[in-house]
Design goal:
Elements lengths: L10 E3 L2 E3 L6 E5 L7 H14 L3 E5 L6 H9 L6 E4 L7 H4 L5 E4 L13 H14 L3 E7 L5 H6 L4 H18 L5 E6 L3 H14 L6 E3 L8 H15 L5 E3 L11 H15 L13 E4 L10 H12 L9 E5 L5 H4 L5 E5 L3 E6 L2 E7 L3 H17 L3
Parallel strand pairs: 3-4, 3-10, 4-5, 5-6, 6-7, 7-8, 9-10, 11-12, 12-13
Antiparallel strand pairs: 1-2, 13-14, 14-15
Amino acid sequence: MEQSKRKTRRIRIGGVEVGGDAPIVVQSMCATRTMDVDKTVAQAHQLARAGAGIVRIALDNEKEVPALKEIRAQTPGITLSVDLQENYRIAGKVAPHVDKIRYNPGHLHHIEKARTIPQKVKGLVEIARDNDIAIRIGVNCGSVAPTFLEKYPGDQLSAIVESAAYHCELMEEFGFERFVVSLKDSDPAKVMDANRRFTARRPDVPLHLGVTEAGLPPDGIIKTRIAFEKLLAQSIGDTIRVSLTLPNDRKHEEVTVGHAIIEDVKAGRFISVPDFGTGMNIISCPSCSRVENEKFVELAQYVKEVTGYAKQYKITIAVMGCRVNGPGETDDADLGLWCGPTTVNLKKKNRKIGNFKYDEVLPRLRVEVDRLIAERTGAN
């Protein structure tokens, strides 16, 4: 799909170009454990064959760097991006082996508190410049920098937009323009609002679109379409990622769905779902290398089945697969499950109910769903 109205600056990321009049790039993320080199290489090729222009890998710590180096050696024709997670300090170790690094502004304050945010960003810029790679500034709804949440109390969207804009200013202050920005939420309406507001503020910056934790197909595809169709039709979005909860052998479906959305928008085909979102809303993050127990994907599927009887009630249930997304991104859900290696943390809003084994959490979840329905209907 060619951009015709809005044109951002055009940047190079490995073997692809993003922004300007370049075609929209579809990307995806490996769900395999990064330390498992063979499976990660196989999945990187699987995604590339499906049409992924960029393949992202997550790194949690320095111990995974040798695996990344070997993955890079076995994927010479694939443009690789790495997610720095909560540990931006490993950027210098991973940069020689990738084409782009992604950092989350909301995670910079956790580490090396004696250093300022500008000092940390300057370090990332110097690493990117020295290694001839690009950067993504990735702002997520569940992990917005505390400074901006405090500055815009009760207005998370403004906090997201202003955080992204501030980091763009830092990049340019340090003489670096080879970056893209993402502003993500699990609510398609908020994704549209945030990206439109940011575009009005910074029409020159290339945008990476995503509905984070869209969930299981088909609902996850519908949520993504709701946001992407409207934004892409307004020439907002230069690269996209469809985030679906899928088993590893189906991970490439994120890519095929992404291409289908782009082609449909290009042809003027739009899917209207007027009553979508009026009932049960199950949010689940895309399976990725951060998932600490592969039962997570199966659990998300079971949650949908077990709560099917309550689908007419407007209840949000979030199912998260790791400690990075789990704690923060379940806080706004009516009920949240975030999965550890052996147990599942069950929450009601930001209050913890308890830890349960994977085969024990579903009956308790149903009890909590029934309680919510009773609270809202006044039933006994």
